[in-house]
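FAQ: What does a multi-protein file look like?

Like this. Sequence, then tokens, then the next protein.
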Amino acid sequence: MELTDTILVTGGAGFIGSNFVLDWFPHEDGKIVTLDKLTYAGNLSNLDSLAGDARHTFVPGDICDADLVRDLLEKHRPRAIVHFAAESHVDRSINDPGEFIRTNVQGTFNLLERARRYWEELEERHRQQFRFVQISTDEVYGSLRPEEPAFCESTPYSPNSPYAASKAAADHLVRAYHHTYRLPVLTTNCSNNYGPYQFPEKLIPLMLLNALEGKPLPIYGDGMNIRDWLYVQDHCAAIRCVLKKGSPGETYNIGGRSELTNLQVVTTICDILDEICPDPSLGCRRSQMTFVRDRPGHDRRYAIDARKIHNDLGWSPQTPFEQGIRQTILWYLGHRHWVSDIRTGAYQEWLQLNYRGR
């Protein structure tokens, strides 16, 4: 069997996946086949700029559909699978853990099994070229105390939410398929992403949009939970680097070198909005901040040690948080139609479920 210069991207209509697909063509040759189930967080309009582009094919479908995945591999003969598709919001995993097990564990298993059978039928020289890239999260490592060193690739897994546990299980399956079957896999564990096309249930777009509309800015607990923030286009560049240069079987942590408390993130958003689009009727947008009851099992701190990917592959983040958050705010201000289209009744129902009683 021959390989083509095509990659299969799962979850390519979601936040990080769509940014990866859009960012691929200015930097790389070859085609992309995007597979996405188009659930609440998958939005085909994210890929509108590729409509009619022969380099891109969109396929609606579920990664748990073994026949569909097999058919796509046989038809398009990709040289790589980049696996973004996942349920990814901690709060949703607390309310409905079963869907996270189905998609993140069963779905990843199905992809691995179909990829293994496809790979085993390739000629040896093509086996050497093929890659399966698992896009994972720093949340699999658990929570850090303030004085503890950042997560590195050898940090033991200690997931604390159903979401993190489902991603940890998926990562373990990926590792097992390399060590048992020699499938050439690569795993990346990234810190918190932000940027264009992020579904507005996540912290930054939720706070940004609420601040614009004069709504309360609900901050969990005392607001001192710390995350390492990574601009999504830096993340996309890192994944391309791993795909091109990474050693099969290896894990690479990807971080933004921007550890900030949730409170710092929200106040930064408020201050930038007050600067670039002041609203006298609202006054200082910091006054909209309100502290609400913390979510169960809320990890206190995440931090990424990204020295391995820098030393081995030459990647480092290029976008400081102050620059990235300003670019993100300007994007949302310039894409109000995207925001209104994505904030459906289902999204509003989820907001009521998650924040009611807090």
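And here is the next protein:
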Amino acid sequence: METSEEILDKLKHLDTISSELEVPAEKRFEMVREAAAYADQFISGLKTAKCFSEREAASMAISDKRSTLPELLNLYQKEVIGTGIIAPSGKHFGYIPAGGIFSSAIADFIAAVTNPYAGVHYASPGAANIENAVVNWLKSAFSFPENAVGNLTSGGSVSNLVAFAAARDKYQIKNGIIPKSVVYLTEQVHHSAQKALRIIGLEDVIIRYIPIDEHFKMITSELEEQVKQDLKEGLHPFLVIGTAGTTDTGAVDPLDDIADIAEKYQLWYHVDAAYGGFFILTSKKDLFKGIERADSIIVDPHKSMFIPYGLAAVLIKDKMAVLHSNAYSGNYMQDAAGDEMIKSPANLSLELTRHFRGLRLWLPLQIHGVEPFRACLEEKLWLVKYFRIKMAALGFELGPEPDLSISYFRYPFKKDAEEKNKQLMVEIHRDGDVYFSSTVLHNQFVIRIAALSFRSKKETIDESVEMIQRCLKKL
């Protein structure tokens, strides 16, 4: 058994080594300056940097070798920023782009340094209040009642999971009733919906794919007929999913009409507004009529509020259903037991330990206000209109007039049009100056533009059109 002297010697030795983790003030300032210089260089270079590289990244294996921060920033620039898609670029038109506004990065820095535990109100009342303030702002934006609950999640997939678990528990979808229970959606729904159903134990429910019209919207008359038929056959309809901004085309389903049917047949009505939801702040507000009637909605600030990846939200009207799914406790949390349940975000989702996400939207809204976000979204609507005019002038075929900021196009080659449009996509990726992606609609290969970055401007559209012309000439 060690003596007190031996223990003290050991603690002294370990303290010398472990103290390296507490970086002294002078070194902290130096590291912040180095990181700030890198951030400035990165942001300043976005306009001229290629948006996409097909180069594979080198191994980023961790070793015992120590490196300086400048060395690691150089490695990061080469192997992370220099490969794949530069998501914060204004030239990222491929998927639903991430934002990356600087004030949100500052919020993340502050949240990481101070590291409050926002999951339980007792542990950090101020942090929990910020999370709840963001949820309350979202409820106001979507005209949800004050007594609705909400949670800030890592993404739309987790948001869907939280909402569907609440629907499952409210309607008691378990055991033998699962194979007779019915969910209604369209082929345009995001795949995270089917994934969430499987994860929460509803893999064996019946999924009805309701037909869509020429604008890729759910045909509500077909929905009602299918519900009637299922009831007649003794099945158990319980959930209908509408989309406010599909991933492929940005289409917004007839939300109000779906709400009528959901009310009539007592279905849980869920709206996936992950991409399109915040366009409710723009001139497109009328498209979202009926979203306030949903039982649950999801929205992603890391999409159309330009926040870095990792901030989504779910709003749900039935508080008790959410608490039934998520509220548990343990003896070690007895000091927090006196808090009102809904003040603690951990009671409203599957996460107990969680990042302090609320600050990354709360701080930008407090600094900038809402108007710049509204203007950015409105700008993207007009950029897509401008892009479509330019592409039509080049002879491209265009999809229908889009609801939001996603559209698609293809070139009418006289021969082998399908294969040549695929080749055109290859050339666009090979060029890499601006990034687009593709999809298949009506059994045809098409190229998509998803304009959502706050850095995308009229000049960015001009640059993208010039790149497409370059690539077209190669064919």
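Q: Is there any per-entry metadata?
A: Some entries carry free-text notes. For the entry above: The two ends are 80 Å apart (CA to CA).
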